[in-house]
Amino acid sequence: MRIPAHSVCTAIRDDIVAGVHARGSRLTEELLAGRYGVSRVPVREALRTLEAEGFVVTRRHAGACVAEPTEQEAGDLLEMRMLLEPLGAARAAQRRTEAHLKVLRGLVRLGQERARRGNSDDLRSLDGWFHETLAQASGSPALTSMLTQLRHKIAWMYAVEAPVSPVESWTEHGAIVDAVARGDGERARAVTALHTERAKGAHRLRFGSAQERADRVRNSQHPVNTASPRL
Q: Residue 158: in which H helix or E strand, if any?
């Protein structure tokens, strides 16, 4: 069975974000095909996609390599997110469906509950789902795609500290949903801008050691041709 290129692309991207493939390291089709249990064709297609997204660069005499973004480029990503997240919330206030609202409200309830209990691991996943759903509620595939790529790249370049006050952070999530539910685009934009501004301070550039990268490679198992779900 031929594994879709988008599945291979997701697997390689996830490993780049996790640091399994170190910045600047070569990405040979043969080794990647062996690692993910696929042929070289979907690997080749995945590398082209990842190059377009900025995760991979092609170098003369070296071929495909993991990109090495600068601190300035990393900073630009946070600035872009601070502009696009509020825009997405404003659009969601006008275009959201009842299904979007149901999911967003459910995530806020769970987030507030976990925040009171201090379950930081759960909060990180819930936060990601919240912002992904909010982007989808914007009704703009292009904007949703851009925000998704930004989240992947920011996760790759930054370690994110837990909020000093998780309860307050999820109260802000709730305020965003309230504005979206009322169809108040300006309020949704303003609350989301404040939320992303506060969240910016929790981001720290990653500076992993070679040993840490080696440990991640040794401990990582990332087949893409299995039936096991990947969360």
A: strand 158-160
